[in-house]
Every structure is written in C-alpha cells, then in structure tokens.
Amino acid sequence: MVGAQEQGLKLLVPRSGVSIYAIRVQMALAMKGLAYDYLPEDPRCKSDLLLASNPVHKTLPVLIHSGRPVCESLIIVEYLDDAFPGNGASILPADPYRRAVARFWAAYVDNKMFPSCIGILNTANQQERADKVEETLAAFGLLEAALAECSKEGEAEAPFFGGGSIGFLDIALGCYIPWFEAIGRLAGVPPFLDAARTPKLAAWAGRFSAAKPFIALLTAVDKVEEYITKVLYPKWNVAVTASN
C-alpha cells in the first residue's frame, strides 16, 4: 500500500464517526488499497479547509486528491475507481448497462429507501409509523428483487450485487446496515433485513458485514442508536423513555 503522502489523499469526515457517507468512502478506499489522511471535522464549526473544498453544499465527506476536492460520497467512490484503476479490484461494473443499473439502485437507496426508513422515527402517531414501516418494507422488497437480478452470473447467482466480488451497489447499500438495525430497534419493529421476508438480502448483509476490511469500518449498532437518540431525534428518546 502506497502511503497517504505519496497518494496525496485526504478525507474530511464528521467527527461523530457514524457518518454513513464517510464510511462508504472509507470502504471504497479500503477496496482500492489506498492510504489517506483522516481529517475529522466538527460540522457545527466548519473549517476553512471544508468551506474552500465544498463551497456549494459545505457538507462532509470531502476527498482531497493532490489538492483537488471531490464531493458527495457516491461521486467520490466513482472517482476513486477511475483515478486508481490499477489499485485493488474494480468497484463499478465494466458493462455499461450493469453500471447504469448499479447507479440507479444506489440513488434509490440514498433518495428513497433510507429516508423512508429513518422517517419512521419522525412520525407523529402509530398509524403514521405503521404506514412508514410498510413503505420501508416495500423498498426492501424491491432491493431483494434487484439483488436477484444484479447478482446473476450466467445461470448461477453470485453472492454480491457486484457478482462474485463486492462492487459499487454493495458499498452504496452496505454502509447503511448498522443504521437499519438501529432504527428497527428504536422503532420496536422486526428487523428490516429479515431472513423470512427477504432471504437473499439478509444473507447478503451477513456476507458483506463479515467481509474484510468492512468489519472494522461498520459502526457498532449501539453507537448508532446513541447518535440517533442524542443528536438526530432527542424527542424520540424522551418518548421511548416515557413509554417504558
């Protein structure tokens, strides 16, 4: 592995250590075998480096490569695959159609599936919560079907969205695994990644979580729960405590 200084890579991330999108980029860096300087930031007190690197959205993570910033996690993952083709395994599919499909589902996970899931914790009553849970379960059902299609290699089914090895859509979805479990626990609903309801997706999550080097990168579920109830939805924490 070439050192961070030689590669000229810096990664600006939230200090909390639970950022889904920072972890996604770290997964891609690990897949490519790239060293980098890890620079934690306080999102409430944005540094001059962050403001200069991402003046439009002023959000994290940001990858800086030889002084040039790249923003937005999925874009960063693609950039790393393009900028370092000789390092590690390819992340995006080589086939243009499979690449387009992977991008479509990655955007679906970010823009529809996860907002629906975490939206369960922002409901006003039991009926709203039940409706949001159903919406989320439907999204998992669609991903179950997508996995069956994306993982095909000839007549056989491969273990990952990327086929025989972890790829773009695996990383895009895999960084959410601890959050899905944490939200399910807090909402008091059965696991979203349920072997009875979505067996392929549940088995995929087990394989992904056990894959090196992702074991060390996935945030502990307890830590995610603490972050949700103390930072994102403190009112939820009060409501849960009052109902116990």
From TrEMBL:
MF annotations from Gene Ontology: glutathione transferase activity
Positions of transmembrane segments: none
Enzyme Commission number: 2.5.1.18
Domain named GST C-terminal: residues: 95-231
GO cellular component terms given for this protein: cytoplasm; cytosol
Subcellular location: Cytoplasm, Cytosol
PROSITE patterns: GST_CTER, GST_NTER
Catalysed reactions listed for this entry: RX + glutathione = an S-substituted glutathione + a halide anion + H(+)
Keyword Mitochondrion: no
Coiled coil region boundaries: none
One GO-annotated biological process of the protein: toxin catabolic process
Enzyme class: transferase
Signal peptide location: none
Domain of life: Eukaryota
Function (record text): Is involved in the conjugation of reduced glutathione to a wide number of exogenous and endogenous hydrophobic electrophiles.
Family label: Belongs to the GST superfamily.
Protein's name according to its UniProt entry: Glutathione S-transferase
